[in-house]
Design brief:
The chain has 264 residues and is an alpha/beta fold. The protein is built from eight helices and twelve strands.
Amino acid sequence: MTISSRFITFFGATGGCTNAALVHTLNAGIQVRALARTPSKLTDMLLAQGISKSTIDSQLTIIKGDIASVPAIKSVLLSGDYALASQIMSGVGGTPQLRWSLKHPVTIDNPEICASTTKNIVQALHEIYLEHPSTAAHKPSIVIISTTGVSDVCEDVPFGFQTMYHVALADPHKDKKVMEKIITENAAGSDAVFRGAIAVRPSLLTGDQSIKGGKGWKSLRVGQEDKPAIGYTVHKADVGEWIFEETIKTDGQRWFGQKVTLTN
């Protein structure tokens, strides 16, 4: 499938890494459908990044809705002529909150948002395949933004951050682990809803979505779960650019089934 004939669905498109990936995707001329609770917020962010109104109007379809709604998700995954997205980019996440707890001082406003979002995407695809059987011949791949510190295989957090990650951030990371498990289970077997799945695990995120603010995706060190790239921080814009260059621009098949660590 050529770039001009496909479209990609974005969830969590106002998040830093995801928004940066979206900017690069639109700049490449790719069609996008995105779900947003406040479409004007997403539009304003893109305009601030230098995306023209004409590009937004011609390449981006924003569906107003909430990620908790399976019907809303279905409306973004399917175009008006019942074509199915070729790829799904999900960067949904909650807002960190502090609480009075020595053991787990950090939580998020919606502690299960990553897992529940991914479950809803899976449910939406099951319903689409049932209602429109021909779409099952062209299943989408999915890319999710997870985090380091959730591996059961190998330590991927530097020593100086291990207490913060494995103690202070333990609760938010439980949600990421469940999310990863869901995409892995649903990208294999006869009942798979994805043709491939990629979990991107950046180290501690810094900066914002501005594509002019990072060091560039080629500056990143890249690892996989059994041989992770270990570092302290990574810029959100660089993560977004890597996602575009390695999983959107190229379809990402070389990374299917991988948990990819990214760090500066």
